[in-house]
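Hi everyone,

Forwarding the result from last night's run.
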Amino acid sequence: MKPISFILIFVFVCNIVFAQTDGNKKSSFQLSFISPIGTNGRYSREYTNDYSLNLLVGVSKNERRFTLGGLSNIILSDAKGVQVAGLSNYVGNSGEGMQWAGLANVNKGRFNGLQIAGLFNTATCVRGVQIAGLVNVANDVKGVQWAGLLNIARNSDVPIGLINIIKNGEMGMAVTYDGIGNAVASFRSGGKYTYGILGIGYNHKMKKNGLVAEAGLGAHIPVLKWLRINNELKVSSIGCDLSNPVYNAGYLLLSAFRIGRHFELFGGGSINYMETKNRDAENVFPNHSLWKGNNSEKLQQAYVGYQVGAQFIF
């Protein structure tokens, strides 16, 4: 208990000694437990700090270099340097540098640099990279958004996520068919260069249940106004509601031809790997292969395939 008592006494004394009331509220270092218990006292929201150590939740006006919070850092105006928090970083105006939070980074203004959050990142304008386990939200993005599920922005050329709601980007519905019998309807959404894929369909070669679920990421290479090359990484589950579905993962290289404003036809080759523990699904596997690894427990195969499709672009 003595170390804890010493820390509490130290914070209390610093609270009295360093809590300034003049107009020049700047501090090289802030130590706080939870505002207003800290070296800047009840005036902490008026201070600009170079370094801050917030054992639970810290409040300040500006941060210049490094801020560490056990739970949250609340910065009412501008933040520069590095902010690290167990749960969240909040910046009331602009940020620059790096933000890392176990849950969320929230910027009410512009952010330049790198945001990493376990759940979500938000900012009005981003110049840099947003990485989130679930969702990224911004207005204008010059850089990359990378989310486990969803990216939202008005302008974002390089969103990497399964769903990308980009106002000035591209969204469409596609119907595809491939060499192992998958007919899939998919929602495709993204920006100028990258897009996400989520689809559901049916495999007519599957004996019992041919329900197909598909997810993937893609990248456009613009060639001409009416032609682009699409690169896709996709994973699909055939018989996805069965205990032993067929898994297929592949890379696709597709030529896409634009017809007017809303239609696109595409097709090309693929390199794939598929496996299953369901011996009844053997007829789904193609007759040709680059490699086979079948045994008593599961079927495995690498093969060259194809895909063709058409897309309606909203």
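Residues 18-22 have pLDDT under 50 and may be disordered.

Cheers,
N.
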